[in-house]
Specification:
alpha+beta, Cytidine Deaminase, domain 2, DNA polymerase, domain 1, 20% strand, elongated, 2 domains, 4-stranded antiparallel beta sheet, single chain
Amino acid sequence: MLELLLFRLIPRVDTKPIAKALIARFGSLAEVLGAPASLLEEVKGIGPNVATDLKVVAATAQRMARGEVRGREVLSNWTQLLDYCRSAMAFEAREQFRILFLDKKNGLIADEVQQTGTVDHTPVYPREVVKRALELSASAVILVHNHPTTTSLITLDHAQLH
């Protein structure tokens, strides 16, 4: 898929070696799309325009993933939930604390970044989590945060609200 995408972005160039170099550097298509533009440009054959185009594809994929999850039973498929969270935040340069607010059927009401911290720390205020859950009439929350220093690691916690 990456080679085909690069073929469209870089005309009249053999993109197979560039795709292989990107995968070798970042590990997977998701990690290539999640990488900062500045790091993409460090790979031979990727200029600022191609890096920007790859970020546009990443943003499009992220919006599609959000659309697939909205209104569905989020907890019925952990793989889908993990993919959604990974596309939304796994490759952020700073740690984020994100909350997925669910209705009584585990449908997604809202996905909000509550805090953004440093590369290895973000504050969490339980009072603010509960306050926002009550404002949205959420029946459950999924608390998520990423670990930028250990690429693509995501931690999930789930709580039912009674």
